[in-house]
Amino acid sequence: MTNREPAITRRGALAAVGAGAVIGALGLGGTALAAPERKLFKLTPAQRAGQRVIFSYPGLTPPQTLLDQISAGQAGGVIFFGENITSLTQIAGVVAQLKEANDASPVRSPLLLMTDQEGGIVRRLPGEPVLSEKQIGESADPPQQAAEAGNGAGANLAGVGMNLNLAPVLDVFRQAGNFDDEFGRSYSMDPDVCAECGAAFITAQQPLRIAATAKHFPGLGAATVDQNTDLGPVTLDVPLADLRSIDEVPFRAAIAAGVRLVMTSWAVYPALDPDLPSGLSPTIVGDELRRRLRFRGVTITDALEAGAIAAFGTPAQCSVLAARAGMDVLLCSARDVSEGQDTVAALADALQHHALNPGQFDIALRRVLALRDSLA
How many CB atoms lie within 10 A of CB 341? Predict the structure, then answer.
């Protein structure tokens, strides 16, 4: 996603197996899994679906429909944008209100409360990190500056009660002024600099119980200034050798650093899948990210209302395709509670009618609940 709010929207495969394999898929021990297992007991399909959906809302005050959705156990979290925030004190009050609604939910795992606090232009909260990723990458000591940014972002989010940052951007930009570089959202044209900075940001932020998100897998660094997935379809015809030796390098470093989430892009990468955008592609999510790179954390989509995937259906319909591809968390960021409600309904219907594999669905749900419990 870019900083152009609200003119454009936010841009940005496991079979049912035994308990031991589920634990391995989660990357967690049995103790961490026990609570999510208990919480799944007797949940309705809508509640199971809702725990994987992130909502958004317009303006400064969460509408009652959102509070009711949370209390009913049919929401997994909320994303905040600039239009939702006037000050740290104001948004801290909103966060407290959302947490109070969650206290009534049958699933008591903390909500995922998130924003894009990348640094530079793209930050929703006032304060740290002030430097953009590009400024960090051009500094005298990029890893140290990135660590300070990660610590600052984590402390800032924790101070208002949030627990997830949709950062860092790990795209390796190719040309000055292109899609990532236009707003200083990439550390460098050098994949090793991006890898070092991303890992430093993540390892500094996550001990503060603020989950980091590496985005936008497998990389938007080759996108030109006009290739904005918010607005329409984007195809990045990058050779497979370049994808793996350039674009994926920072993601490998992030995974090694223990990043909790990876966000996929909505671009099409013909070298990996000629037909489907990354977040709808079982090949990219399941084969490339999960199996080849061995990521065991939580996957999250970019905005379901993005123009890049409009040809595949409504946001709700795309959520089913994304879940089928292996995405764990579905992001509804149109600042409209009904978008999230429609997404929950579509996922629940697909679950009930076996358009989504129930075993795979619950593996993803357990992974999400385990993440949320770890942030309490």
Answer: 21
Strand partners, 122: 119
CA distance 211 to 11: 19
**Alpha-carbon span 145 to 63, nearest angstrom:** 39
Tokens coding 264: 């996929």
User: Counting beta carbons within 10 angstroms of the beta carbon of residue 65, is it exposed (0 to 12), middle (13 to 18) or buried (19 or more)?
Assistant: middle
Continuous segment of H or E residues that includes residue 180:
none
Q: Kindly compute the dihedral angle of the four CA atoms of residues 323, 326, 328, 330, in this order, to the nearest 10 degrees.
A: -40
Q: Which among 8, 111, 135, 132 is positioned nearest to 51, based on CA atoms?
A: 111
pLDDT digits 0-9 by tens, 265-293: 999 999 999 999 999 999 999 999 999 99
* Integer Cα distance of 41 and 64 in angstroms: 27
**What are the pLDDT digits (tens) for 175-229?**
999 999 999 999 999 999 999 999 999 999 999 999 999 999 999 999 999 999 9
Write out the H or E segment, with its range, that includes residue 49. Answer: helix 45-50
Question: Which DSSP helix (H) or strand (E) runs through 202?
Answer: helix 191-205
User: Contacts by 314-317 with C-beta closer than 8 Å and gap 24+?
Assistant: 314/342, 315/339, 315/342, 315/343, 316/342, 316/343, 316/345, 316/346, 317/346
* Strands 164-165 vs 112-115: parallel, antiparallel or unpaired: parallel
